[in-house]
Design a protein that fits this description.
The chain is an alpha/beta fold. Helices cover 40% and strands 15% of the residues. The chain has one domain: Alpha/Beta hydrolase fold, catalytic domain (Rossmann fold, 3-Layer(aba) Sandwich). Helix 2 packs across helix 7, helix 4 packs across helix 5 and helix 7 runs antiparallel to helix 11. The relative contact order is 0.15.
Length: 365
């Protein structure tokens, strides 16, 4: 690397360093399971009702047989990392499918895959432009007066920011799932993102778009043993494994795990500096487009779902929202399982689904 450094710029050297570290680690500790497969995922019928740049708003066609029909539609917001079809991975484990069978009109905001032309996108655009537009388009399409919103992972973080800045949006119910808001507890990820270890500005200058492989590598290093020494990613251990569906289930989840998307550099830098390092969101000091994000402005009914074994969005990062909002109706549920396992694991249908089934319908009539 020293000879190579003399021939390239500092930024290019930094990019090559991370690339080499990534390759060396996999050579030392095992190979990723990357299976080229055509297993069908995201099979629930849907149509695009609005799009802007790379972002699409999907409407899922109602299930043929439902228990009820609720007048308050549900808009689902996924993270900026990986693809949202994990919520509709296979028919038997599909969260989207379950919600449709319950009788909800379901919409999903898909951020799409950013290109280099999107490297300058800020969190401001997601929070103040795309999310409010998605709410308005959902209301128009459904002809409803209010909606429910469900935010998973960073999708929940962005959603909370949007509702805090735009409390006039007609949102009746807010569901947060494994959504980190308070970064005061320094988990392993925060330690790695400390300025003395991780020069985020240089990383962004070198890459512009943060590669999906780099993000995936970082999350896998949080639990390197199971990831690099087992035949499958640890997410698979929580997935249904009956004889009949073992192969399809594992192919599907493996496809999703290795199907990441890049992260706009400008938004990534904001996320690291403003949230992970300074914890400005819960301090009330996060400013997006000259507007302070005050979580106390949130007054929607709140269901906060936490994964007890989550090593990505730590329980301590998700819990404080209960004290920070002014929602008159607040419920918090802690479920066994990890960050992804609570949504698609073998126990999701007997742990997560009943929680949603008991909480949302009575607040959607």
């Amino acid at each position: 690397m020293s000879a190579q450094r003399a021939e390239v710029s500092e930024d290019e050297y930094l990019r090559l360093f991370w690339q080499q570290l990534y390759a060396d680690y996999y050579r030392a500790f095992g190979q990723r399971v990357v299976v080229k497969n055509e297993v069908a995922v995201g099979q629930s019928a849907r149509e695009v009702i609005w799009s802007y740049n790379k972002t699409s708003l999907y409407y899922y066609l109602p299930a043929a047989k439902t228990k009820n029909r609720y007048p308050v539609p549900l808009l689902v917001i996924y993270s900026l990392i990986n693809k949202p079809y994990v919520l509709d991975l296979l028919p038997e484990t599909s969260l989207i499918g379950f919600l449709l069978r319950e009788g909800f009109e379901v919409y999903l905001l898909d951020w799409g895959e950013p290109g280099l032309e999107d490297a300058g996108m800020l969190l401001d655009e997601y929070v103040l432009d795309l999310l409010p537009q998605a709410v308005k388009k959902t209301l128009r399409h459904s002809k409803a007066l209010e909606i429910s919103v469900l935010g998973y992972c960073l999708g929940g973080t962005l959603l909370a920011c949007s509702l805090a800045i735009c409390p006039q949006l007609p949102v009746r119910n807010l569901i947060l799932m494994a959504a980190p808001l308070d970064f005061s507890e320094r988990g392993l990820l925060q330690v790695w993102l400390t300025a003395s270890y991780f020069d985020v500005r240089r990383i962004v200058e070198a890459y512009r778009l943060i590669p999906a492989e780099l993000i995936n590598f970082g999350t896998q290093l949080l639990k390197p043993g199971p990831t690099f020494f087992s035949g499958y990613n640890p997410v698979l251990s929580a997935f249904p494994c009956n004889k009949g569906n073992l192969s399809i289930s594992r192919l599907a989840i493996n496809k999703w795990v290795n199907d990441g998307i890049a992260f706009p550099g400008a938004a990534f830098q904001q996320l690291v500096e403003e949230l992970y390092r300074r914890n400005n969101l819960v301090k009330g000091e996060l400013v997006l487009r000259s507007k302070k994000v005050q979580l106390a402005n949130i007054k929607a009914n709140l269901l906060n779902i936490i994964a007890a074994g989550d090593h990505i969005a730590l329980p301590s990062q998700c819990q404080p929202v209960m004290q920070l909002t002014q929602s008159p109706d607040k419920t918090q549920v802690v479920l066994p399982g990890g960050h992804v396992g609570i949504v698609i694991g073998r126990n999701a249908s007997v742990q997560l689904w009943p929680v949603l089934e008991s909480w949302l319908p009575v607040r959607s009539t």
